[in-house]
Amino acid sequence: MSKTADAVIIGGGALGASVFYHLTRLGMRDVALLEKGELASGSTGDSAAFVRQHYSNEVSIRLVRKSLEFFQAFPDEFDGAEVFTSTGWLFLVPPEAADVFDVNIARLRDEGVKTWPISVEDAAEELPGLNTDGIARVAFEPESGYVDPGAMVRALASKGEANGGEVRLRSPATGIAANGNANTVSTPGGDVEARVVVNAAGPWAGEVGRWMGLDLPLELSREQDIVVRPPADAPKLRRCVSNMVDRTYIRPTADGNVLIGTGHPKENEPVPADSYRKEADEEFARETSRLLGRRFPALGGSAVAHGWAGLYTITPDWNMILDRSPANESHYLAVGGSGHSFKLAPAMGQCLAEMIVEGEARTVDISPLRAGRFDDGAALRSTYGGNRA
Ligand SMILES: Cc1cc2nc3c(=O)[nH]c(=O)nc-3n(C[C@H](O)[C@H](O)[C@H](O)COP(=O)(O)OP(=O)(O)OC[C@H]3O[C@@H](n4cnc5c(N)ncnc54)[C@H](O)[C@@H]3O)c2cc1C
User: How far apart (Å, rounded) are the C-alpha atoms in residues 130 and 285?
Assistant: First the structure.
């Protein structure tokens, strides 16, 4: 690796790869992406990777719209690579959230999101075998779906390399020494002098933040998903579903199985980034299978194929910090994905790259995601709670 760089990005997940790609796209050539393991080996590789647009604050709505356009145009920009499956998405809402749901739908439509309410009967047609008990409202987004997160990160990284950047795998950053705007990033392979350093270290962002002189407000929580194999005669699930009634998220997988996890409200499960149980718990598999069978009785007899646990890195308002560091103007932060930021990574990376190269983000005004918002009373509000921001 060259011993100097215009920018060093620490972390090869969705955020780091997106910043890397967009920096090279804006003409920065001497950009190095440091990844301590393999690409997408952190939260990104464990992501359920839903892409839905039902957010309740403007900044997230605008970021997800831009990101959806990016996913839709992916094959054109990335040599035919298909990483996005547009299944359509349904949001099942209980009576107690019906009022905020109506307000949200109006806001989303004002922002240009292609979404509308559908009747519970129509939802049952979209989702054959659906038990409609307890469902008061349903939102439909015909264009939403899910992504193959590892494939997306690899495509961004290799395009960034084709544009002149350098990806270094199994290359942990081990410290940052800052002297004004001159930074020395240490790695076992030698130091790199860098004008700009980006912290995109996912669950390890707190540690990298300390090297930057910051005490970032981040908490980790273990998050589990399972994949089940439906009985052969069960109706096929073709759409992605966020089910606020039973607090589950459910989607088809590329090979005809069904992925399921549990939504909020729920307790966080704090764990250290480097030592936690990476398999799903038996009790979790049993309970989520039960919830799946309650909502889709024909899927009740599904066999658990596999399961895993990954990490949410959570900020106090469940939204990322995407900003220049308040402590050093050559340091940048893309931290605290809070369980929903894979889908936002394309536009977030573009905005941060614009801030680095051009001084401010042009694509979306990301000032609501600034680092100082928790101290100046400007934390974002989440209509439904948790990561349904
Ligand atoms: C189970 C689960 C389900 C999820 N479902 C969804 C979903 O449906 N939709 C959605 O939008 N989001 C979802 N998320 C959230 C989403 O996956 C994350 O917000 C997003 O992937 C975070 O990306 P990142 O790049 O910030 O972090 P990561 O993917 O964790 O990347 C950080 C990288 O930095 C590397 N690194 C750390 N320290 C160093 C160092 N010192 N030197 C070099 N490299 C370093 C790590 O190895 C890692 O690869 C889910 C998350 C989980 C865990």
Answer: 20
Q: In sequence order, what are the beta bridge partners of 262?
A: 248
Q: Is residue 186 a contact partner of residue 173, using CB atoms and an 8 Å limit?
A: yes
Q: CA torsion sign, 104 to 107 to 112 to 118?
A: positive
In short, whether 13's Cβ falls inside 6 Å of ligand 1 is yes
Cis status, amide bond into 265, omega within 30 of 0: yes
User: Which residue minimizes the CA distance to atom 35 of ligand 1?
Assistant: 11
Cβ(35) to ligand 1 under 6 A?
yes
Tens digit of pLDDT for each residue in 138-197?
Answer: 999 999 999 999 999 999 999 999 999 999 999 999 999 999 889 999 999 999 999 999
pLDDT tens track for 291-344? 999 999 999 999 999 999 999 999 999 999 999 999 999 999 999 999 999 999
The best mutation among 21, 44, 55, 216 to test binding of ligand 1, ranked by most ligand atoms within 8 Å of the C-beta, falls on 44
- 3-class SS of residue 4: strand
Residue 251 CB less than 6 A away from ligand 1: no
Total residue count of the chain as it appears in this document: 389
Provide the pairing of β-strand 31-34 with 166-168: parallel
What is the Cα–Cα distance from 328 to 318, expressed in whole angstroms? 24
Task: Measure CA of the first residue to CA of the last residue in the chain; give whole Å.
Answer: 40
**Short-list 224, 225, 227, CA closest to 305:** 227
Taking residue 119's Cβ as centre, other Cβ atoms within 10 Å add up to: 11
Q: Is the CB of 49 under 6 A from ligand 1?
A: yes
How many helices (H) and strands (E) the chain has is answered by 10, 19
Domains of the chain (ranges, CATH numbers): 4-49+149-218+316-374 (3.50.50.60), 89-142+220-313 (3.30.9.10)
Please give the model's pTM, rounded to 2 decimal places: 0.98
